[in-house]
Amino acid sequence: MKVDIIGDIHGCFEELVELFHKLDYQWKDGIPVHPENRIPVFLGDLTDRGPDSIKTIDLVYRLVMEKKLAKYVPGNHCNKLYRYFLGNNVKQQHGLETTVAEFKKQNDTDQSRIRDHFIKLYEHADLYLQLPPVHAIVAHAGIREDLIGRNDKKVKTFVLYGDITGEKHPDGRPIRRDWAQSYHGEDWIVYGHTPVRQPRIVNKTINIDTGCVFGNALTAFQLPEEKIISVPSKQPFVEEKFNSFD
Length: 246
Prior knowledge:
Blueprint: E1 3-6, H1 13-22, E2 26-28, E3 31-33, E4 39-42, H2 53-66, E5 71-72, H3 76-85, H4 96-104, H5 108-124, E6 129-131, E7 136-138, H6 153-161, E8 164-168, E9 174-176, E10 188-191, E11 200-202, E12 205-207, E13 217-223, E14 227-232
Parallel strand pairs: 1-4, 4-5, 7-10, 10-12
Antiparallel strand pairs: 1-13, 2-3, 6-7, 8-9, 11-12, 13-14
Helix pairs in contact: 2-5, 3-5
């Protein structure tokens, strides 16, 4: 098994297409296929904020559900869109409003298809993926070592939102513990969720959310090669969106 784990896309479809080209995928019938059968793994937050969330949903659905050529774990934005599509009263903010605006421009038939496909994609997904052949675990916001193997409510909160304390920064962002400092496992933990200027490696964890939607880059982590591949973002750069850990 060889995998290309892809960071938070957030509707940046053009950059995703460029990344697949850079990873040597070839486009056949509108989907990227690798000549050596490498497997794309999407680590969540496919939508919101960027310009092309609907195209991104369509492509990931085809790859994961129809062609069985890729894998996917959900992120917190995926969870919010899923709840919106179920008809729940979800606040349209923090990016969801951009996906909803795109969705509402579609005709009734396309809306029904998009809603149905995303619900199926989300409900089919594991909270996190264990990939023993490449000695890796993929979780949107990471996973603490003692939670690996569990699938309860605490695990769901962690993999979607990170190691949150329940407190907030003055700007409203949740305060998170730096769980990666305490990880001492043998497998890679590959995650995103928190935008960083460069992929952040701590122990055997790597954050590959390089903030494409905030103007930096879209990044993939290749295993077993342990190689980082990025393409530059086409979006405006928003410096304050990038976190650094002291």
